[in-house]
Design goal:
It is built from 20 helices and 14 strands. By secondary structure, the protein is an alpha/beta fold. Strand 4, helix 11 and strand 5 form a beta-alpha-beta unit.
């Protein structure tokens, strides 16, 4: 296999003839040391083009960035490259593999047991002794091939694992792995009844970040003493005492409950919700625990309200696809409990500003009671928008503690971004009260194509 084909298999080494320049004047060790500071793949590839010496040595640095393989043919080509190292012929050691740190295999093709791509995949996993990061589309190959499953279990340095279409075999691997996993992203299907958290006992002491879908809520059976970031989607509510007990160092939390039919909370009014919240607090106190403040919380107001799980959070990112009347009312009910200093509200609505802007005014009115609020960020998607109408919104917002407001509006293939500063806002309000004129001195608008 030619160097050119090899290079293409690991990340788009530019095609065309290599320029044959004079050898570099600096010592090779110095040049390789400099190359080691480059983290961007394209930067490394550009440096490799400068001379044949760096081209030869540069592969070890390219392999330490993420290698992406897009199809079965690329999988076989990559395997062939990894065993093409001349030193392998002399020593029997596949030295290319010692540099491989991060591998992503994204393809719509099935890997069938017995195919060349299957043997290539198994060989790569068995040889990648220093692999730290692995991202896969699915687990079909592990379900059908015991050899592939064992190869995945045998990765001694794996610290990050991401699978986008996992099933029961992924759950089996999670329960059996002894790799020092610190980051897991498990998108599971057909696992609605699976209780994933007890399956993580082997890695509970090393996990720092966990994302998991379609799981039962956590229980007190397994603790995660160092987990700082948790994102999960469950079908049942959970008591706050469990979350505090199981994740004592949690800083960032995202959660959603798929099943919204909680009969015990469906008709709950504000007083009952407050009583449930106080009951949760009392239960924590009785266990010698406290509901610690979070750095970041992302959840639907409805889920917070129904679960009566209302931790304080420095940043509250409101997770809403559509701001209907129920979501809007729920938002106003939970905000006094969360008490964020930064509030992020993304709203997707197909109404024009005649409907959306009155809703924004209601949000302004609700946030005016938040003594903690320092920064409000609103991201609005609407069908029709006039910039002049948005400029009038600043006269409806009066929250003394807020230092900055950001309003981003996407409409009609453009994006408008408005930044409001508290001191300038006060001056503008005073001018408006006197002259009733709007000269736009506060609002900075930037327009461009929406993404």
């Amino acid at each position: 296999m030619s160097d050119r084909a090899v290079a293409a298999s690991i990340g788009q080494v530019p095609s065309g003839r290599l320029e044959h320049k004079h050898p570099p004047q600096l010592n090779l060790d110095v040049l390789l040391h400099i190359m080691g500071y480059l983290k961007n793949r394209l930067d490394i590839l550009e440096l490799m083009k400068t001379c044949r010496i760096l081209y030869t040595h540069g592969f070890s640095f390219v392999l330490q960035t993420r290698v992406r393989i897009w199809d079965n043919e690329g999988l076989v080509s990559f395997r062939d490259f990894m065993i093409s190292d001349p030193s392998h012929q002399k020593t029997g050691i596949r030295s290319h593999y010692r540099y491989l740190r991060s591998l992503e295999f994204v393809t719509d093709d099935d890997i069938n047991v017995g195919d060349e791509s299957s043997s290539a995949f198994i060989e790569i996993l068995e040889s990648a002794i220093n692999l730290e990061d692995l991202k896969l589309d699915g687990d079909t190959i592990f379900k059908n091939s015991p050899e592939a499953f064992q190869a995945l279990l045998g990765l001694p340095q794996l610290r990050s694992f991401d699978i986008q279409d996992g099933h029961q075999k992924t759950v089996d691997w999670v329960g059996a792995t002894i790799s020092p996993i610190s980051k897991l992203n498990l998108v599971l299907w057909d696992c609605d009844e699976v209780d994933i958290f007890p399956q993580l006992a082997n890695v509970s002491g090393t996990l720092r970040e966990l994302t998991v879908t379609a799981s039962q809520p956590p229980t007190i059976d397994v603790r995660f003493p160092h987990l700082q970031k948790l994102s999960f989607y469950t079908y049942e509510s959970f008591p706050a005492s469990v979350l505090v007990s199981v994740f004592p160092c949690l800083k960032r939390l995202e959660f959603a409950m798929h099943n919204k039919s909680h009969p015990e909370f469906s008709d709950m009014d504000d007083n009952e919700m407050r009583q449930q919240h106080e009951h949760n607090q009392a239960e924590l106190v009785s266990r010698g625990l406290s509901l610690y403040p979070l750095e970041y919380l992302k959840a639907q107001p409805n889920d917070l309200y129904l679960s009566a799980f209302l931790p304080q959070a420095d940043t509250y990112h409101v997770a809403m696809d559509y701001l209907d009347e129920q979501n809007e009312n729920m938002l106003y009910r939970v905000l006094p409990f969360v008490q964020p200093s930064r509030l992020v509200i993304p709203v997707v609505t197909y109404d024009d500003e005649t409907v959306t802007f009155p809703m924004l005014r209601r949000i302004f009115a609700a946030t005016s009671a938040l003594s903690s609020l320092k920064l409000l960020e609103l991201f609005i998607n609407i069908s029709h928008f006039h910039k002049q109408a948005a400029e009038q919104l600043m006269f409806t917002f009066q929250v003394p503690g807020v230092n900055k407001i950001t309003l981003k509006i996407a409409a009609a293939s453009k994006v408008w971004t408005f930044h409001w500063d508290l001191e300038e806002l006060r001056e503008r309000l005073e001018q408006h009260a006197k002259s009733r004129e709007n000269d736009g001195s506060i609002v900075t608008a930037e327009s461009g194509n929406s993404t």
